[in-house]
């Protein structure tokens, strides 16, 4: 009797240890999966990550997207094998792999901070609401209030080199600048001046009723961004490499305080439709509030400074969220930077 009982207990023990073995195996497999996903190169979008970051996501898009077809960039494969085709292809390469050619250890010049144009102009400036170049060909040259001057495409590209890449631009007549301008204009070649283009630039999101909060944003950052962009916003590059896998968000290698993303509204619009990596305008991973708050957090941290005293020669044209005075209204720099913005906008 006691024997049987022992036997039974023994086989139960074996079953149990089998079970443990099995779950240990499952755990190891899961771990392996996690490692594989973390090491997959930056430019493949990973829908599976969406699941990981989905806990407080909302799928509603603030501004319903009007009917009509989403803009699509022309196909690179359609480019002819001519010198012009080659120039455009080189421009594409420079947008994608800017650091490799023009970064701190670039093969052509050392004139920028290690970021790629594509870090902010996703899929080489072709992604819907990924800060794409759809409208550039049809809207430039144009007068821009920031400089108070008429700007052509090369001037606009210079701006991103000096601000977003915290560096200097290649000379206007260099092959690199010519290639960038040719590529960017080729992207928008089928758009006519005045066309309404669905998916161009950045996704509009509604203003918050309250000020955007760096404190709330910090929690969003830790939960949804830090895994790639790092605890100190320093980004991630493999040891010995001068090229980022995950670009920095603040600190000495990030965009400077004269850059477009330093405006909290631009940052919020960019992340709403594009971050965490894998998010799209029709499958966003952040609520509007999370987008505003994480924008406030990231832009409250230290970064390189740019001398922007010559910007906005007509100060009444400063955007509502331009964080540096003087202003024509009575609101503080702090209020302009973080909001709430409604009253500022009403007074215009
Ligand atoms: C840190 C992010 C960032 C990086 C890196 C960056 N840009 Fe930009 N760029 C922006 C933002 C944001 C805007 C829109 C700014 C605004 O509307 O105020 C913009 C606007 C532009 C525009 C004008 C688009 C339009 O429709 O008017 C061009 C052209 C451009 N960038 C080219 C480049 C090129 C070329 C590079 C690389 C040399 C580059 N950018 C790197 C953030 C970036
Ligand atoms: C799975 C990794 C991953 C996560 C998580 C992630 N990002 Fe990114 N992020 C990237 C990569 C990769 C790029 C560059 C995309 C490219 O070059 O195609 C990028 C680019 C950016 C950029 C523009 C470039 C720059 O460095 O300024 C911003 C801003 C940004 N992410 C903000 C965020 C925020 C905010 C979150 C959290 C809500 C977030 N990201 C979560 C991988 C990630």
TrEMBL record:
InterPro entries: Cyt_c-like_dom (IPR009056), Cyt_c-like_dom_sf (IPR036909), Cytochrome_c-type_DH (IPR051459). GO terms for molecular function: electron transfer activity; heme binding; metal ion binding. The chain crosses the membrane at residues 12-37. Residues 308-348 are annotated as: Disordered. Residues 308-321, 332-348 have a biased composition (Basic and acidic residues). The keyword Thylakoid does not apply. This is Cytochrome c. Keywords: Heme, Iron, Membrane, Metal-binding, Transmembrane, Transmembrane helix. Pfam families: Cytochrom_C, SoxA-TsdA_cyt-c. SUPFAM superfamilies: Cytochrome c. The lineage of its organism: Bacteria, Pseudomonadati, Bacteroidota, Cytophagia, Cytophagales. Residues 212-302 form the Cytochrome c domain.
């Amino acid at each position: 009797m006691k024997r049987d009982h022992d036997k039974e207990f023994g086989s139960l023990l074996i079953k149990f240890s089998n079970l443990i073995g099995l779950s240990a195996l499952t755990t190891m497999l899961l771990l392996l999966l996690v490692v594989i996903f973390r090491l997959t190169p930056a430019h493949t979008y990973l829908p599976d990550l969406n699941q990981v970051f989905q806990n407080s996501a909302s799928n509603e898009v603030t501004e319903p997207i009007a009917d009509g077809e989403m803009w699509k960039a022309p196909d690179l494969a359609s480019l002819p094998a001519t010198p012009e085709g080659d120039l455009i292809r080189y421009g594409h390469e420079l947008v994608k792999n800017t650091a490799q050619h023009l970064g701190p250890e670039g093969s052509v010049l050392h004139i920028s901070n290690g970021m790629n144009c594509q870090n902010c102009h996703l899929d080489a400036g072709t992604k819907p609401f990924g800060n794409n170049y759809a409208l550039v060909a049809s809207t430039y040259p144009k007068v821009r209030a920031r400089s108070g001057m008429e700007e052509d495409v090369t001037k606009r590209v210079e701006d991103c080199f000096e601000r977003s890449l915290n560096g200097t631009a290649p000379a206007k007549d260099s092959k690199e600048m010519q290639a960038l301008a040719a590529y960017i204009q080729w992207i928008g070649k089928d758009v006519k001046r005045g066309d309404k283009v669905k998916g161009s630039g950045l996704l509009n999101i509604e203003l918050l009723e309250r000020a955007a909060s760096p404190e709330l944003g910090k929690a969003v950052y830790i939960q949804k961004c830090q895994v790639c962009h790092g605890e100190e916003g320093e980004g991630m590059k493999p040891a010995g490499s001068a090229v980022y896998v995950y670009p920095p968000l603040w600190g000495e290698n990030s965009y400077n305080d004269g850059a477009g993303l330093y405006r909290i509204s631009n940052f919020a619009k960019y992340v709403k439709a594009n971050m965490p990596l894998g998010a799209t305008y029709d499958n966003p991973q952040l609520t509007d509030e999370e987008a505003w708050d994480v924008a406030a957090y990231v832009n409250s941290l230290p970064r390189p400074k740019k001398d922007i005293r010559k910007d906005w020669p007509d100060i009444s044209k400063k955007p509502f969220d331009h964080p540096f005075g003087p202003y024509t209204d009575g609101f503080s720099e702090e209020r302009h930077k973080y909001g709430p913005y409604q009253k500022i906008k009403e007074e215009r």
